[in-house]
Amino acid sequence: MTNQGKRRRESRYHRAVRSFWWGGIVAAGAVVMTLSWVVTYQATRPGVPVAASTQHGQAAAKTNGLNRASAVLEVPKIEAKPTVVNLQAQAAAAKLAREARIAAKKASAPFSFKIATFNVLGSQHTAPGGDATSRAPGYVRSRWAADIINTAGADIIGFDEMQLDQYNVMMQNVGGYESYPGTSLGGAGIPTNIIWRTSKFNLVGTSTLTIDFLGQNRPMPIVELQDKATGRNFYVFNVHNSPVQGKNTHEAERNVQENLEVAKINALRKTGLPVFFMGDLNEHADVFCHVTGSTDLVSASGGSSSGTCRPPADMRVDWIFGSAAFSGFTLDRSAQVQRTTDHTVLFATATVN
Q: pTM of the full predicted structure?
C-alpha cells in the first residue's frame, strides 16, 4: 500500500473515533439534563417525600460536577409542644388576670356604714367645781355612752370633749373597735378621738390638722380607712371648734378654724377618695353654707347649697358631712342620751357609690 493510501485509511479511522467520542459526550449531557429535570419535577410534586427528592437532587448535582442540590425543598412546620414551664406560666397569667378583674369590680362596688358624732360632755364639767355637777360623773356617763353606741350599732364614731377617764371606760365597754389618736398625742388629742369597727375596716393611715382652740393647739384627727368588703379607701375627719363662752362668741376664732378645715377637706378630696367631716362645730346655718358651698360634701341632715344656700330645718351645733348618699338620719335625744350628755347624738347611714 502506498503512503497516500495509508494516510487516507488513518483519516477515516480518526474521523470515526472523533464522531464516537463527541456523540458520547452529547448523549451524557442529555442524560444529565433529563435527570435534573426529573428530580426537580419530583421534588415539587405534592406528596413526594423530601428525603427522596433530596437524594435525587444530590445525585444529579454530583453527576453534573456541581456540589449543590438542584431540588426545591419544602421546610416542614414545627409546632411547639406545651411544657410544664409553659403551662405554669399560662396558669399564673390567668390567675393574675382573674384577680385584676375581681379587684376592678370591687373598686367600683358601693359600700355602706353607720356613722355617728357624739359629744360626750367632758368629765371636767361634772367634776366638783364644774358647770354640770348635777349630772353623773364622767366615767359613769361613759358606760351609758358605750351602751348607746352598742345599741345603735354604729360603725364609725367621732367623739368630742372626751377625757382620759371617759376614753378608758369607753374602750373597755365597746367591743371590736380601734381608735385614733387614742392616747398617742397626749391630753390634747384625747377629746376628739375617732373609733371604727375593726371587722369592717382596716386602718390605712393617720394625720392631724392643728387648730387654735381657746388659746390651745389642738390636733384634730384624720384617719384613712379601707372598707374590707370592697377594698375602697376613704377619709374620716373629726373636729371640735371653739364654743361660745358667755358674751365671748369666739366667732372670729371659729371662722379661722372653718377656713383651715375646708381647705383640708378639699386637699383630701383631691386624692379622689371620699371624705367624711364631722364634729361639734358650734355653728348652725353659717357652717352648713360654708362647708357645702366650698366643698362637694353634703350634709347627712339634708339641706342644699345649689344656687341659694338652704340649710336643713332642724339644726344642731353637731354635724355630719360627707361625699356620699345619706339615709336614716337620726337626731337621738332619747332619755338615755339626755342623762349622758347635753348634746344630741347624730346617726346616719352613708353609702359610697
A: 0.73
